Amino acid sequence: MEDENRWGWSFSGSRTLRLVGVGLLALLLLIPVLRIGDLVKERQGRAAGAVGEIASKWGNSQSIVGPALVVPYTERTTSVSPTGAPVVTDRPGNAVFLPRTLHATGKVDSETRERGILSVPVYRLDMNVEGEFGRPDFGSLGIDPAAADWSRAHLVVAISDVRAIQEQGSVQWNASPAPFLPGTGGFPEYQTGIQAAVGADPATESYRFSFPLTLNGSSMLSIAPFAENAVVELESNSPNPSFQGNWLPTDRTVNTDGFRASWAIPFLGRNYPQAWTEATALRPAIDASLFGVELVEPVNTYSMAERSLKYAALFLLLTFALMWLIEVLGRVRVHPIQYLLVGAALCLFYLLELSLSEHLGFAPAYAIASLAVVGMIGAYSWVIFRQRARAATVTGAVAGLYAYLYVLLRKEDYALLMGSVGLFVILGTIMYATRKVDWSAPGAEPA
Q1: What CA–CA distance (Å, rounded) separates 300 from 370?
Q2: 444 DSSP 8-state letter
Q3: Is residue 443 part of a domain?
Q4: 241 and 293 in contact (C-beta within 8 Å)?
């Protein structure tokens, strides 16, 4: 009667039923794992808010579209009124012309801004832009050159976050200076930027230009290939660039001191012409042609924590399976509360990893959290099994799992392959270890 009333772990002595019970306990422990996953998302959202707050004050991701030469014109049309009298209508418009050549050289000085325990990568761009426009060809747009107002021609550079411009600059237009003013004038595709009234002489064959550009930004720098032949050269002290857009650099060097990259882009590779009128909607095509660089964090602690949580169920099942194998093969008995306590330690690892990584970085946090949990489970395994070899087996297996997980997290490109091979090996090991077990036989009594 005492044995029947005792809350044991026998399930009528069936090894299969005990295995099912172990699986149910593992599923039960996924509830706190899911709660930790929600906490990771919450902290990630908080970090994103801090990034947005710093970017709003320092400078957001920057997109530079230009320069473009905008020349106003007046299109005159004649119609007939109901009374038969001719009616002349003048419709103003703007024609946009791109340079023949564009050469931009820039230095991107990266630094980190702190907000509490969070850090955000930002940069300061010092760029010099030069090139040459040919004489605007209104005939290619079906516009009479005599309708152009050459004196009101202006150079436009669209900038996504003009608040971050650091210096009042001017453009050298055929060796004559013209100060930049706010706005994009007759370039309605983009609403924010700078412009300079340069004027244009229809008798001049070409127009040379050059200007400096200094602005702050965060995370991303994008540039449009606004020329028949666009050459962009960037250098930075950031050792972690991620090159973005439709064109990768033709030449690049990346090392621990930073990177150098250059792009040479012909206009045949983009999907918009060298000249158009403001009535033509080209914003989607221009945005699709942007290229540049993103300054990324070497390790994003929240994304790594989120990825590690994906393996939580596997860790629980494998650890419980090992303990169950020791039960079956070693003729010992493990109480369900002991399974739960070991599972709670495994779940606590993810909370330790997250909280420590916000202060120490991912690698030190992972090392401390895994060592703490391995030590706790190792000591408790000695209490459960009362045998050094069995406790060492559980401890070594858990330590191996954490080492294996760390490699998976670091080698993202090979994670699927390594995970598949690892699971195959583990399953084969379990099958080999249990090859002589009689699954229909009653369970062993406690040792």
Answers
A1: 19
A2: P
A3: no
A4: yes
Whose CA is closest to 130, among 109, 103, 156, 150? 103
Q: Answer yes or no: is 2 within a domain.
A: no
Q: Are residues 294 and 335 in the same domain?
A: no
DSSP strand pairing (275-277 vs 86-97): antiparallel
Q: Burial of 359 by CB count in 10 Å (0-12 exposed, 13-18 middle, 19+ buried)?
A: exposed
pLDDT at 437: 62
**Which pLDDT does position 208 carry in this prediction?**
92
User: What is the CB neighbour count within 10 angstroms for residue 442?
Assistant: 11
Instruction: Give pTM, 2 decimals.
Output: 0.69
42 shares its domain with 81: no
**Co-location of 286 and 361 in the same domain:** no
Q: Give me the residues paired with residue 102 across strands.
A: 131, 230
Which residues sit opposite 213 in a β-bridge? 127
Helix axis angle for 15-58 and 301-309, nearest 10°, is 160
My answer on whether 286 and 308 are in the same domain is no
**For position 103, what pLDDT does the model report?**
93
Within a 10 A sphere around the Cβ of 18, how many other Cβ atoms? 21
Domain boundary among 246, 269, 298: 298
Q: How many Cβ atoms sit within 10 Å of the Cβ of residue 412? A: 11
**Residue 239, Cβ neighbours under 10 Å: how many?**
14
Quick one: pLDDT at residue 5? 43
Could you tell me if residue 256 is inside a domain?
Answer: yes
Q: Which two tokens stand for residue 99?
A: 């340079």
Which among 346, 416, 417 is positioned nearest to 381, based on CA atoms?
346
pLDDT at 298: 58
Beta-ladder partners of 8: none
Considering the domain boundaries, does residue 439 fall inside one? no
What's the rounded Cα separation, in Å, for the pair 326 and 390? 7
Report the domain count for the chain: 2
Q: Same structural domain for residues 42 and 65?
A: no
Considering the domain architecture, whether residues 15 and 68 belong to the same structural domain is answered as: no
Residues 157 and 290 in one domain: yes
125 close to 214: Cβ distance less than 8 angstroms = yes
Residue 149 host element (H or E): none
Place of tokens 């036989």: 441
Instruction: Determine the pLDDT at residue 11.
Output: 44
Stated as kind and residue range, the H or E segment containing 202 is none
End position of a domain, from candidates 298, 326, 361: 298
Residues 219 and 280 in one domain: yes
Instruction: Provide the residue range defining the domain that includes 98.
Output: 61-298
pLDDT along the chain (447 residues), means of 10: 44 61 77 82 75 73 87 73 64 86 90 69 88 86 81 88 81 87 82 86 85 87 89 88 86 87 86 83 86 75 80 81 76 79 86 82 85 88 81 84 80 69 76 68 48
Give the total residue count for the chain: 447
